[in-house]
Write a structure and sequence with these properties.
Elements: H1 2-17, H2 48-73, H3 81-85, H4 87-108, H5 113-147, H6 153-180, H7 194-199, H8 202-215, H9 227-258, H10 265-291, H11 297-305, H12 313-335, H13 363-369, H14 383-395
Membrane topology: Multi-pass membrane protein
GO molecular function: G protein-coupled receptor activity; protein kinase activator activity
Transmembrane segments: 47-73, 85-109, 121-145, 157-177, 197-219, 231-253, 268-286
Amino acid sequence: MGAAGVLPAATCVLLALLPPGRAQSTPPAGCGKDLSSLYYNLCDLSAAWGIAVEAVASLGVVTSFVLTIVLVASLPFVQDPPKKSLVATQVFFMLGTFGLFCLTFDFIVGPNFSTCASRRFLFGVLFGLCFSCLLAHAVALNFLARRNRGPRGWVTLAVALLLALVEVIINAEWLTITVARREGGPADPCVLADADFVLALTYVMVLLVAAFGTAWPALCGRYTRWRKHGAFILATTGLSMAIWVAWTAMYLYGNQRAGEKPGWDDPTLAIALVANACAFILLYVIPEVTHVTRRGPEQAYEDDGYPTRGVGYETILKEQKSQSMFVENKAFSMDEPSFAKKPVSPYSGYNGQLLTSVYQPTEMALMHKSEGPYDMILPRATAASTAAGSASSTLR
């Protein structure tokens, strides 16, 4: 239902942006006289698609570059180990998206040997890298949604790179066979049948369908916090499938029926590149970047049970102030005599009651039970001590 509604809308957008078919012998409005005809689409004010796609692609290049820097800079702040292990795969996906925006300019300018060769090789390689990263991420999410433990980060990245390497090998062999060994004339990568270009992307389409199908089981896992990541991949691959169906139908059949077969091919591919790259940014990159530093429920529970100490400047000042107050109070308390060292009188417990009803401790009992040391207790006066005191006073 959703894909059926997206396809007519995407076709209408393609038809609205495509240029009218006309031959140009003089520079169009907005272009200089000394400018090569190869770059007319970059400045032609009468053709809406060139300037519009160029503006969107330029914005996408800057946005993807900034988001890549933000994702890499956020790595030290990622507290969830499974999310941290997937950052490397996401960085390679963003590099592939950055390459798609850059490749758009290759389709805006006119065809020559270098542009045609880079188009044929990089179109499938960059899309293959992006869809491989999505597929590897979807596979890791299936483990996380069921066991809350996924494969190691380097394993996920290795799977994505190996899947993308297959497309690199396919395109390298295909370009070598169709260009370097072309018989009956000089090597020209621009001479290519439309059906061959689409068939060369069969492996990329397989990766796209596989990523779309692998993201579904992640929505039914035991651990629900990973479902939103599966939904990001599902939305991205679903819209990508709609875009691919639209541009392939337009590239193979629509342009020919409209009578603008050679003139609308490059705009169709350029618009498809920008549209798919924007879908990557809006539906996958931005949501993943915003969720990468969010803590999981385990980390939130640990922080609530065991709050960590702050390391801010205000916290340090508070700690120093409390320590200084403790030292000052301690110094002040040292000036006062200790309660344990005060002299204790043996008659301090007497309250005027009768001796028969009041317990009268002996001197030995008081010495054993008193808190202070023995030498601090006031001794009783005796006859021997009185005689010694009078003798000493007489000698003086």
